[in-house]
């Protein structure tokens, strides 16, 4: 019975908390162990002097996935947070001089295409029609596991095959519909959500831009960090226990089964099932003993393809800026910039970057008349030879120059009251992200579906993996899905339903 199950969860990120609250709501005894003094992992917040910043994710897409998770826990999402739909979706700034502001309404986006990219309207219409069908067929494939090769024959994936576009790059796929290079970038930059270049990213991920345009982008008041805080609240309401400042040293294994956790304090925690929500590469190389890893050896983990990293600036400024909530400024040579990140692994002299000006939507994040400016610059992960202790000061100046020159943040330096930065080295050593790869394992065809780490751990039984490094992949909606898949696994097993019937 589910009610007799004792579950130990490593990490209070969105995947771990999704599984935890769903299992607690079904009567399981759930304990979550979090090394940091806060919940959320990358989906957390910090602040000072009245400024509040999200550490990581700032976009919420596929709102219905989160609503379904809360409904499964017997809750309404609206009782825990207020969501606002962002309009325009974002401001895209090209060095060609064009500025493109797609709207929350696709019809108004079409009008914006007429203004900025005339002649591409019919291609946009064809793209949206095709991606609607693709999304309807592909998204259901993400919510089921693929443990064996023959699972690729499941009806959901067979039904989606004509729309996968996995044999072409994302950029090439979109070029079939749109002929202006800048407009193609406007519908392919979403590959950066996966830490990849659209020239390398599989074409199946064109659904990301469709999801934004058709379903919208949302902002929870207080920031996306409110999601994990709400999940922790539900967990507590259902009798689950959250242990902060409590690091895990090792997953305990006996006779091919996970049997609990060894904490950094030396205490042992017994459990019927263990859920690992730590970063995948870190978990394999730090939390699971080498004697228990035949497939995921240290060498195997190191050789896998990882996403890029990010250089972050969090700025509290003493004024308001007249720019939208989400802003992306592209390098003059965007493809070269991405090659510098993923292939050459050097710092770009002309980086692309993202700026969040959330105060235009959410006045709770800063004192009256002031703003939080969140800056994300994709950069190489720590596989490169960049010395961040040496190079960070000069790179900061380069980024601030670009913000003042290209992002509309005039005289920004003069208005900074609060500032902190995160480099790939910070992500790796302080946030415990393997290689500082902020978006986790890359989403190459060799690391997807059955070739991605499975939600039911392959090395030993009664251990499950959630988060961006496992199936279905990185990004908040798919991380929620990973937590839901794992909760379903455990509940099926408790009910005596064969796991092979999971579909």
What features would you describe in this structure?
The strands form five sheets. A seven-stranded mixed beta sheet has the order 7-6-15-16-17-14-18. Strands 9-2-1-13-19 form a five-stranded parallel beta sheet, with helices on one face. A three-stranded antiparallel beta sheet has the order 10-11-12, with no helix packed on it. It has three domains: 2-83 and 222-304 and 442-501, FAD/NAD(P)-binding domain, CATH 3.50.50; 109-213, no CATH class; 308-434, Guanine Nucleotide Dissociation Inhibitor, domain 2, CATH 3.30.519. Helix 1 (14-25) runs parallel beside helix 9. The protein has helices at residues 14-25, 63-72, 106-116, 121-142, 155-160, 170-175, 181-186, 207-215, 225-237, 280-287, 298-303, 334-344, 388-406, 412-415, 424-429, 476-495; strands spanning 6-10, 29-33, 45-48, 51-54, 83-85, 91-93, 99-100, 218-220, 241-243, 248-254, 257-263, 268-270, 273-276, 309-317, 326-329, 353-356, 371-379, 416-422, 463-465. The radius of gyration is 22 Å and the shape is globular. Helix content is 34%, strand content 18%. It has 16 helices and 19 strands. It has 503 residues and is an alpha/beta fold.
Gist of the model:
The chain has 503 residues and is an alpha/beta fold. The chain has helices spanning 14-25, 63-72, 106-116, 121-142, 155-160, 170-175, 181-186, 207-215, 225-237, 280-287, 298-303, 334-344, 388-406, 412-415, 424-429, 476-495, and strands at 6-10, 29-33, 45-48, 51-54, 83-85, 91-93, 99-100, 218-220, 241-243, 248-254, 257-263, 268-270, 273-276, 309-317, 326-329, 353-356, 371-379, 416-422, 463-465.
């Amino acid at each position: 019975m589910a009610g007799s199950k004792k579950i130990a969860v490593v990490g209070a990120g969105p995947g771990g908390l999704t599984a935890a609250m769903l299992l607690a709501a079904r009567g399981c005894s759930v304990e979550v162990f979090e090394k940091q003094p806060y919940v959320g992992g990358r989906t957390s917040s910090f602040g000072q002097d009245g400024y509040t910043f999200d550490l990581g994710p700032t976009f919420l897409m596929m709102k219905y996935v989160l609503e379904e998770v809360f409904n499964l826990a017997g809750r309404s999402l609206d009782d825990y947070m207020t969501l606002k739909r962002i309009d325009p979706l974002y401001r895209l700034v090209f060095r060609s001089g064009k500025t493109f502001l797609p709207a929350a309404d696709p019809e108004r986006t079409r009008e914006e295409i007429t203004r900025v990219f005339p002649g591409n309207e019919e291609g946009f219409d064809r793209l949206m029609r095709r991606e609607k069908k693709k999304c309807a067929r592909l998204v259901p494939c993400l919510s089921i596991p693929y443990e064996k090769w023959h699972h690729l024959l499941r009806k959901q994936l067979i039904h989606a095959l004509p729309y996968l576009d996995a044999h072409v790059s994302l950029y090439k796929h979109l070029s079939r519909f749109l002929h202006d290079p800048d407009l193609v970038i406007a519908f392919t930059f979403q590959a950066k959500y996966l830490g990849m270049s659209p020239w390398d990213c599989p074409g199946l991920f064109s659904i990301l831009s469709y999801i934004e345009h058709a379903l919208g982008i949302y902002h929870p008041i207080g920031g996306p960090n409110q999601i994990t805080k709400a999940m922790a609240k539900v967990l507590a309401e259902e009798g689950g226990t959250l242990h902060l400042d409590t690091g895990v040293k090792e997953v305990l294994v006996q006779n091919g089964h996970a049997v609990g956790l060894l904490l950094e304090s030396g205490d042992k925690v017994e459990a019927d099932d263990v859920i690992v929500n730590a970063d995948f590469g870190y978990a394999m190389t730090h939390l699971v003993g080498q004697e228990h890893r035949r497939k995921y050896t240290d060498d195997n983990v190191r050789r896998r393809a990882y996403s890029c990293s990010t250089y972050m600036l969090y700025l509290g400024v003493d004024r308001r800026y007249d720019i939208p909530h989400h802003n992306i400024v592209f390098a003059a040579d965007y493809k070269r910039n991405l090659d510098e990140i993923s292939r050459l692994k050097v710092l770009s002299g002309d980086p692309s970057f993202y700026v969040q000006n959330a105060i235009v939507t959410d006045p709770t994040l800063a004192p009256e008349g002031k703003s939080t400016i969140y800056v994300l610059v994709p950069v190489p992960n720590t596989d490169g030879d960049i010395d961040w202790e040496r190079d960070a000061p000069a790179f900061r100046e380069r980024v601030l120059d670009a913000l003042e020159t290209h992002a509309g943040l005039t005289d920004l330096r003069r208005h900074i009251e609060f500032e902190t930065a995160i480099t790939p080295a910070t992500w790796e050593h302080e946030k415990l992200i393997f290689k500082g790869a902020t978006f986790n394992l890359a989403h190459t065809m060799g690391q997807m579906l059955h070739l991605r780490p499975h939600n039911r751990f392959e090395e030993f039984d009664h251990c499950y993996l959630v988060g961006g490094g496992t199936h279905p992949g990185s990004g908040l909606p798919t991380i929620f899905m990973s937590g839901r898949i794992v909760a379903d696994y455990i509940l099926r097993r408790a009910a005596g339903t064969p796991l092979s019937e999971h579909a």
